[in-house]
Design goal:
The protein has helices spanning 50-69, 72-88, 90-101, 105-125, 164-176, 189-202, 216-225, 238-248, 273-285, 302-316, 337-352, 384-387, 403-411, 426-435, 468-471, and strands at 16-18, 21-23, 30-34, 41-46, 132-134, 142-149, 152-156, 179-183, 209-211, 229-235, 254-258, 263-267, 295-301, 356-359, 374-377, 394-400, 415-416, 418-422, 440-443, 458-459, 462-463, 476-483. The chain is α/β, with parallel strands linked by helices. The protein binds succinic acid. Succinic acid is lined by residues 160-161, 235, 258, 291-293, 449, 455.
Length: 486
């Protein structure tokens, strides 16, 4: 099975989109795109490199002159057209996503809605880019502050959210008047290419949104090194984010880095148990745990610990592991063999350090990528799963005694993207808001993402904010003008 379910077969492209057309480039090299549920080859995309990236940059620089000089309303209408086309093609986009990424179809539909919401949001925000007039320090001068688009932007996005990470960045960039060269993950290029088909249909002008397929190194390095590329926005690991930052120093590029997390999920004795378990399952097992903001460690206070484990186990054991295209699947496969091995390493390490396996723990079938929901209790603070992002359906549960200990353990990590806490006590909520070291905090909520909120991290989870009124500022620079002679 591959694409017979698509209503519009032309949404599936096996060519990349740059320089105003769909092509393969000079290289005969192709990348296989694999369905993680069946391990069958879905299709191929070209493996592009420096030459094609330089061509795309040239096109993007030219396109910027026109795009940035259009009125905000013109840009807004075109971005909105693009969003509406996403809505109209929702089912096909969701099927494509499930085929190449593996997530259950219901989650893919949810992601398409989420991806759409960023284009919708930023089409509106494009009309609200205000500058300032500042009272002058002299009688004969006027002080103006302009917000201007940065220029050509390189957008490097991961496989776990193949559409929404592109629209979250591109929506903001295009609304600000920038042009975009998108480099999606080589594991999930079809969702990005389908977005390019719709951008073209929406009337987004040539060169404003281009998609280059290939392995990251050559394309990303060419974008990073080029002086005409003014910004790189990256979502991915902290390790790669650091390398991008180092390399970008040569041209001092603007950067947005949305990097790894290690989200603590705190449950205090006074929490509402049912609500905490609902949030825990949603936060941990969305996208099979392959989410930067998903709960990575469960920190549970001692009095509620046993009842939390009982209900968590009962609820998580109902998740149905399988091919995301099957109707009742609620947990899809992991993306690759490497991902499965990482999960196994984390589980073995937790068990060696005194943890107990309560649910799951072993892949369903040898050689396949299906890994069940796994719960480990009594996990020690020094276990790998408490220190590192597991990026899989594994929930290590740690028991703590005092409020202070909970906060200390939650903050004992170099990263700080998201955190979650369940309590009914407003004084604790105040203290958590103040002391938890993360860019985002869900209190009595396990799913906090939306186009209206500033998404981003602290510490080694990176910097820059995406979505919300703050997201567009990442693609604008501030220019101060002093007009004399009054
Ligand atoms: C991510 O994993 O980086 C994105 C998740 C989200 O936007 O909710």
């Amino acid at each position: 099975m591959s694409f017979e379910f698509l209503h519009r077969k032309e949404l599936l492209r096996e060519k990349a989109f740059w320089g105003g057309s769909w092509k393969n480039g000079n290289s005969d090299l192709k990348i296989q795109v694999i369905n993680p549920a069946t391990l069958e080859v879905l299709g191929h995309v070209p493996s592009l490199g420096q030459k094609e990236t330089l061509e795309a940059i040239e096109t993007s620089v030219l396109a910027f002159q026109d795009w940035s000089s259009r009125t905000a309303k013109e840009r807004s209408i075109l971005i909105r057209n693009w969003a509406d086309l996403m809505k109209r093609n929702r089912e096909d986009l969701a099927i494509l996503m499930t085929l190449e990424q593996g997530k259950p179809l219901a989650e893919s539909r949810g992601e398409i809605d989420y991806a759409f919401s960023f284009l919708e949001w930023f089409s509106e925000e494009s009309k609200r880019i205000y500058g300032d007039i500042i009272p002058s320090h002299r009688k004969d001068t006027k002080i103006e502050v302009l917000k201007q688009p940065i220029g050509v932007c390189g957008i490097l996005t991961p496989w776990n959210f193949p559409s929404s990470m592109i629209t979250r960045k591109t929506g903001a960039a295009l609304a600000a008047g920038c042009t975009v060269i998108s480099k999606p993950s080589e594991l999930t290029p079809f969702s990005a290419l389908a977005l390019a088909v719709l951008a073209q249909e929406a009337g987004i002008p040539e060169g404003v949104f281009q998609v280059l397929t290939g392995y990251p190194e050559e394309i990303a390095n060419t974008l990073i090194d080029h002086p005409e590329v003014r910004k790189i926005s990256f979502t991915g690991s902290t390790q790669v984010g650091k390398r991008i930052m180092e390399r970008s120093s040569k041209t001092l590029k603007r950067l947005s880095l949305e990097l790894g997390g290690n989200a603590p999920f705190l449950i205090f004795d006074d929490a509402n148990l049912e609500s905490a378990v609902r949030g825990a399952v949603l936060s941990k097992f969305r996208n099979s745990g392959q989410t930067c903001v998903c709960a990575n460690r469960f920190l549970v206070q001692s009095k509620i610990y046993d009842s939390f484990l009982d209900l968590f186990l009962e609820t998580a054991s109902k998740l149905k592991l399988g091919n995301g295209l099957e109707k009742d699947t609620t947990l899809g496969p992991l993306i690759s063999e490497v991902a499965v091995q990482k999960v196994e390493t984390h589980i073995n390490d937790a068990l060696q350090n005194g943890g107990n396996l309560l649910l799951g723990g072993r892949r369903l079938e040898s050689g396949k990528l299906f890994f069940p929901a796994t719960i480990l209790s009594n996990v020690s603070e020094n276990s790998l799963s408490m220190k590192e992002e597991v990026f899989g359906p594994v929930a290590p549960v740690y028991r703590f005694e005092s409020f202070e200990e909970g906060i200390r353990v939650a903050n004992s990590t170099p990263v700080g993207l998201a955190a979650y806490a369940y309590t009914e006590d407003y004084k604790k909520i105040e203290a958590l808001s103040k002391h938890i070291e993360s860019g985002m905090l869900g209190i009595n909520e396990g799913l906090i993402s939306s186009e209206q909120v500033p998404f981003g991290g602290l510490k080694e989870s990176g910097f820059g904010r995406e979505g919300s009124k703050y997201g567009i500022q990442e693609y604008l620079h501030v220019k101060y003008i002093c007009i004399g002679g009054f």
